[in-house]
From TrEMBL:
Highest taxon of the lineage: Bacteria
Coiled-coil region: none
Lineage: Bacteria, Bacillati, Actinomycetota, Actinomycetes, Propionibacteriales
GO MF entry, a single one: DNA binding
Alphabetical list of Gene3D superfamilies matching this protein: lambda repressor-like DNA-binding domains, P-loop containing nucleotide triphosphate hydrolases, Tetratricopeptide repeat domain
The HTH cro/C1-type domain, residue ranges: 18-74
UniProt-recorded name of the protein: Helix-turn-helix domain-containing protein
Originating organism: Kribbella jiaozuonensis
PROSITE patterns documented for this protein: HTH_CROC1
């Protein structure tokens, strides 16, 4: 090549140099253009030799993007040096020490690529320091590549070389070693991988093998040789399937956390899925920010997309031309909506449909058919449900465990590990994968109808097996096993309703009734189905039994007024002396005691008498415990304890089993009577009767906290309340308000007045929302004390005067612990005029609203 002439030769020399350096860096033309801030067309034209003399600032940008610390020779090759000497292309061998600035070879992590992965990144960095071979597995689009690149970047030091091997275009297992050599930038003709791996010190080299699932045997063979023969090398693999090697440490990459609800702005804003979506939207719509107005829509969108990073990214890309509301509405056809415009990354990950199809196409025929059929089960579901609904040619029932394992291994099915001891093995499909599988099943003619009908038949048979479970020693296990398939029962009920088979739907609801009680969100579905079936069946008694179920579930979800309404109607349809008649009457008494209805109190003697005559010891004991709890709410402590002890005495009978709620009621009664040792005894029994990993720990933790508080053990009480706080956020349950109440008492005792204000305000809000009016009489005296602690004595004295008037003239009286707090706070107050009032519930709610205004 001439120094004096040959413009064409000079153009070709720089073009070859740029091409060579780009390949060594593992960059595509698009990626180099993105880093340099140039157009892809500019890169293409330079590498083709069609640009006579690239602009100097463009060459500098390219040098920076390529990581060249001394760009002088690079500039000279482009014709911007002091002379016209052209630097010939050079291939750098990594077997020699790598030049500064080229210790990273291949795709680099995106600076803003990770959101909500800090804990996973920290764990992965530690794994890389302790293990030679780590594989990240997960469904397509979950973010394995970015996590692996970020972990390698964080792990690498000044003396570490990171080589990223993109296996996307490798078609054969035998070609894997060549792909790795190419990533190292070895000289042409180098064929022995050992030459570039030998002599490495520990921590000197990390090889990231990305997108390995389609050449798994080749990757496994090479990785096994690397970690066995070259102790200085670490290997990090991303794949949808584990390699299956003995030295391999597997970590499943999970989807990003989504908001638990649509209401709490702080929780929505803290969600990693929401954070990622908002960041990506801001790239195409800079003015976009999360606000209380759009947060519910964003939360629903992120949940619909399962928190899957690729889906969030593709949806965010649409925000340049569509509103978030429009994107959410269009998700019913998500594969069309999320079809682009992603022009980087692996070809099979540029649309959502391609990403899912890449994995599904690699399945065996039986596994693919099982995936399709599982799409009708709802999510999550159990192995038992799969075997009962999804078998038949080409799926043998005996092969179901093996086929489920294949789907899990290939990251198309997710094991649900949460509460595994309670609910057994469960599996779930990401909604994106479920929709793909559902479309596959729908395309197979009548298969969809067949398997939905099978769901109805299986659920009908299943609930028949639950008859008598209430009196069984393993009733909790049976009902929890049923609850584990609650999504499938929803599918079966939808199908039965579609066919107008309301008697079949009613049988399923009646059989499944207890299983709905384990989770508030599922219980709401039970209420809907119970009331719908009750309105459709012709048998009045069956309708009444369904309404009694709706009443029970309404009470559990905090809708006391709804519970009262359902129980009221149920008791007019069911004979009062039958088992379900006693359930309806007991529920009516319980809900009425919450609402300060005196008729409920008057019903208790007749109800207890009928329960004792019923002949079923278990039902009699349950009714007496229910009535005992109602009497406790009304301050009839001695009568309440008598009925609760009758329940406790019945435990010696077959079919009567310990219940933490009744034990807690006994603890509460003795606490109010001043029997602290007995209160502790019952609280411990409540704890011991609850499953050790029961997700609803609030009740027992709160009960023990009260005992510790009144025993002067404030640190122990505070620790128990901390245990309960997380549970309160996730569900509504018995006595949650007491956790808030005692949090306020502890904070006030410690001088933390603001914390006390927030806690007592939350307790009042919760009780007003749920309609548990009677418990406000325990909370309002603490509100008086907090108002005085805040220096708002006028408001505190005014409320105190109202409560003193209540205590003198109204029923029920405040419980002793609440009355003691009021007396301590009301030295300067006198009873208000205008009492008694005609409507006790309305009076208490008025006082509660006054408190909220004073505490705001």
């Amino acid at each position: 090549m001439s120094d004096t002439d040959g413009r064409a030769d000079g153009r070709r020399g720089f073009a070859d140099l740029l091409l060579d350096l780009r390949v060594q860096a593992g960059l595509s033309q698009e990626e180099l253009a993105d880093r340099a801030g140039l157009s892809v067309r500019s890169i293409r034209e330079i590498e083709a030799g069609r640009v006579a003399r690239p602009r100097k600032d463009s060459v500098r940008l390219l040098a920076s993007a390529l990581g060249l610390q001394d760009p002088s020779q690079f500039l000279a090759a482009a014709g911007h040096g002091t002379g016209r000497r052209v630097v010939q292309p050079a291939v750098i061998s990594v077997a020699d020490p790598a030049p500064t600035g080229l210790r990273w070879r291949g795709t680099r992590p995106i600076p803003d690529g990770l959101v909500g992965r800090e804990q996973e990144l920290f764990e992965l960095e530690g794994l890389l320091r302790q293990n030679r071979l780590v594989t990240l597995v997960g469904p397509g689009g979950v973010g394995k590549t970015e996590l692996a690149l970020a972990a390698a970047d964080r792990f690498s030091g000044a003396d570490t070389t990171v080589v990223v091997v993109d296996l996307t275009t490798v078609q054969r297992d035998a070609a894997v070693p060549s792909a790795i050599l190419d990533a190292f930038g070895t000289a042409p003709g180098t064929s022995d991988l050992d030459d570039v791996l030998s002599g490495r010190r520990p921590g000197d080299l990390v090889i990231v093998e990305d997108n390995a699932e389609h050449v798994l045997d080749g990757v496994a063979t090479v990785a096994n040789r690397m970690v066995r023969s070259f102790p200085g090398i670490g290997v990090l693999v991303t794949s949808r399937i584990p390699l299956g090697l003995p030295d391999e440490v597997v970590r499943r990459v999970q989807v990003l956390g989504v908001p638990p609800n649509d209401e709490n702005f702080d929780e929505i804003a803290a969600s990693p899925a929401v954070e990622m979506f908002c960041r990506r939207v801001a790239r195409v719509r800079p003015e976009f920010v999360l606000t209380p107005a759009n947060a519910p829509t964003v939360a629903r969108l992120c949940r619909r997309l399962d928190g899957l990073p690729l889906a969030l990214e593709l949806a965010a890309a649409r925000a340049g031309s569509l509103s978030v509301e429009t994107i959410l509405a269009a998700l019913d056809d998500r594969f069309r909506l999320l079809s682009g415009p992603r022009r980087f990354g692996a070809p099979h990950q540029r649309t959502l449909a391609d990403t899912i199809a890449w994995s599904v196409d690699a399945l065996s025929d039986a596994a693919r058919q099982l995936l399709y059929r599982c799409s009708v089960l709802g999510s999550p579901f159990t192995l038992e449900a799969v075997a009962g609904v999804c078998t038949g040619d080409p799926i043998d029932g005996l092969d179901v465990p093996m086929l489920l394992a294949e789907l899990v291994d290939k990251s198309l099915l997710q094991p649900v590990l949460e509460f595994e001891q309670l609910y057994g093995s469960r599996y779930k499909l990401l909604e994106t994968i479920r929709e793909h599988a559902y479309a596959g099943l729908t395309s197979q003619g009548s298969d969809l109808v067949e398997f939905r009908d099978r769901a109805v038949a299986w659920c009908s048979t299943y609930v028949a097996g639950l008859e008598g479970a209430w009196s069984s020693p393993d009733r909790d296990r049976q009902y929890r096993a049923a609850h584990a398939n609650s999504a499938l029962f929803e599918v079966a009920l939808e199908r039965a309703a579609e066919l107008g088979e309301w008697d079949a739907a009613a049988r399923i609801v009646l059989g499944f009734r207890i299983a709905w009680q384990y989770q508030a969100s599922v219980a709401e579905s039970g209420i809907r189905w119970a009331t719908l079936c009750a309105s459709q069946v012709s048998d009045k008694e069956i309708s009444g039994r369904l309404l009694a179920i709706a009443g029970r579930l309404s009470s559990l979800t905090g809708d006391i007024r709804g519970a009262r309404r359902h129980y009221e109607e149920a008791r007019t349809l069911i004979p009062g002396e039958t088992e379900m008649g006693l359930v309806a009457r007991g529920g009516w008494v319980s809900s009425g005691s919450h609402l300060l209805d005196t008729q409920s109190l008057a019903e208790i003697p007749a109800l207890v008498d009928d329960a004792r005559k019923h002949g079923d010891v278990q039902r009699s004991a349950t009714v007496q415990a229910t009535c005992g709890l109602a009497l406790l709410r009304w301050g009839r402590l001695v009568e309440a304890k008598e009925l609760l002890l009758a329940w406790e005495a019945a435990l010696v009978n077959p079919g009567v089993y310990p219940d933490e709620i009744a034990y807690m009621a006994l603890s509460r009664v003795d606490l109010e009577l001043g029997n602290l040792a007995e209160a502790r005894h019952w609280a411990v029994l409540a704890r011991d009767s609850q499953a050790s990993d029961d997700p609803e720990r609030t009740k027992v933790a709160g009960c023990l906290a009260m005992v510790e508080f009144h025993d002067g053990r404030y640190d122990e009480a505070r620790a128990l309340l901390d245990q309960a706080d997380a549970d309160i956020r996730g569900h509504r349950g018995y006595f949650d308000y007491l956790v808030m109440l005692y949090r306020s008492r502890l904070a006030r005792a410690a001088g933390e007045v603001e914390q006390a204000r927030v806690s007592i305000r939350d307790a009042v809000n919760r009780l007003l929302l749920e309609g548990r009016v009677v418990y406000l009489l325990e909370v309002l005296p603490e509100a008086v004390a907090v108002l005085h602690a805040l220096g708002r004595s006028d408001a505190g004295d005014a409320l105190c005067g109202q409560l003193l008037a209540w205590q003198r003239s109204m029923d029920p009286p405040m419980l002793p612990t609440a009355w003691a707090v009021l007396q301590e706070s009301c030295e300067s107050a006198s009873a208000a005029d205008g009492w008694p009032e005609p409507d006790p519930a309305a009076a208490v709610q008025r006082l509660a609203n006054d408190v909220l205004s004073a505490l705001s």
